[in-house]
């Protein structure tokens, strides 16, 4: 992909928007980023912020940013980023343009400008900043917003202007989003999903070609392949947690080319491994596994391209077995 992946989560108050966005990010990223757009105007807002902080675990990185979200781009790369929320973010632009000013401390008075043109400027600036933010290619952004236009017609002109601008901002984000989720009473309803790739459909291979493929695969599986001198991977499918598992074990190769443990004992192929692995990886897809092993594991000892290619094939087999409910046996 050459642009960021964008998910928009919308809904009414207490519909479960933030919770859904948080779980979504945690499922795809071990160290997600939370971008807080709220300002602590009063005691109520402070309590809301404290509650959200308590809901997140220590693995979250929190960034407080009220306007120019793209300025923190270096913290987003390779991460799942939860922006919570667009409504407060747009409010900040309204305040920046002088449409209104929020009360200070525990005051109840909101100062409102009689000129509504700055509201249009605020909306355009928010759209431009959003476009700039999602121009990054290696980020998954999850935006939480509010569906505030579904209630009664607002009494005050400022409220009507804000509802309109919020709706237009939501439409702008939704048009760019890969997924749009509408939360109702804690239940997600998918409004928009990624379209499948436009790949031509061809007839499946005939039986003769499938037999030829199977024979070729079996023949290639019997060829000799030098072992990595530093260790080996045991790949499996864990049905309980629905993950692909890969354990790296250290070993040595003796003069006869046999794989031995660090004490020199030959390791049989059908050995019941009870020794804890040096490193263990768990992932949902072959791509995720290869990224963890070859990109994120800086101390990865694999030096052979042959072994790396073999491991990639095994991860792909394991993913197919996991998704299709098939038995997986490491080659």
Description:
- Pathway: Cofactor biosynthesis; adenosylcobalamin biosynthesis; adenosylcobalamin from cob(II)yrinate a,c-diamide: step 5/7; Cofactor biosynthesis; adenosylcobalamin biosynthesis; adenosylcobalamin from cob(II)yrinate a,c-diamide: step 6/7.
- Its EC number is 2.7.1.156, 2.7.7.62.
- It comes from Hanusia phi.
- Belongs to the CobU/CobP family.
- The protein has eight helices and 14 strands.
- The protein is an alpha/beta fold and 331 residues long.
- The chain has two domains: 5-192, 3-Layer(aba) Sandwich (Rossmann fold); 227-324, no CATH class.
- The chain has a seven-stranded mixed β-sheet with strand order 3-2-4-7-1-8-9, with helices on both faces. A three-stranded antiparallel β-sheet has the order 10-11-14. Strands 5-6 form a two-stranded antiparallel sheet.
- Helix 3 (86-96) packs across helix 4 and helix 4 (117-133) runs parallel beside helix 5 (157-176).
- The longest helix is centred in the middle third of the chain and has 20 residues, at 157-176.
- The two termini are 31 Å apart.
């Amino acid at each position: 992909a050459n642009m960021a992946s964008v998910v928009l989560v919308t809904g009414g108050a207490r519909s479960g928007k933030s919770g859904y966005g948080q779980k979504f990010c945690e499922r795809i990223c071990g160290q997600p980023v939370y971008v807080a757009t709220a300002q602590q105007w009063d005691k109520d807002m402070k309590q809301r912020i404290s509650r959200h902080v308590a809901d997140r675990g220590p693995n979250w990185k929190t960034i407080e940013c009220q306007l120019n979200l793209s300025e923190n781009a270096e913290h987003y790369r390779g991460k799942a980023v939860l922006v919570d929320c667009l409504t407060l973010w747009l409010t900040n632009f309204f305040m920046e343009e002088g449409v209104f000013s929020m009360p200070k401390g525990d005051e109840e008075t909101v100062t409102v400008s009689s000129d509504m043109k700055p509201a249009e400027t605020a909306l355009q600036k928010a759209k431009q900043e959003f476009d700039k933010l999602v121009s990054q290619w290696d980020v998954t952004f999850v935006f939480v917003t509010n569906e505030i236009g579904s209630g009664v017609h607002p009494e005050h002109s400022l409220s009507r202007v804000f509802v309109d601008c919020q709706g237009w901002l939501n439409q702008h984000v939704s048009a760019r989003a890969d997924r749009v989720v509408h939360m109702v009473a804690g239940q997600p309803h998918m409004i928009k999903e990624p379209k499948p790739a436009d790949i031509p459909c061809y007839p499946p291979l005939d039986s003769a070609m499938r037999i030829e493929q199977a024979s070729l695969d079996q023949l290639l599986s019997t060829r000799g392949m030098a072992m990595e001198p530093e260790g080996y991977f045991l790949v499996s499918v864990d049905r309980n947690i629905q993950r692909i598992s890969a354990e790296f074990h250290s070993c040595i190769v003796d003069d006869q080319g046999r794989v031995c443990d660090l004490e020199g004992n030959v390791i049989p192929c059908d050995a019941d491994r009870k020794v804890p692995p040096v490193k263990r990886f768990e992932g949902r897809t072959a791509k995720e596994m290869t990224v963890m092993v070859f990109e994120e594991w800086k101390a990865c000892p694999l030096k052979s391209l042959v072994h790396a290619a073999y491991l990639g094939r095994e991860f792909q087999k394991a993913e197919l077995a996991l998704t299709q409910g098939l038995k997986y046996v490491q080659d």
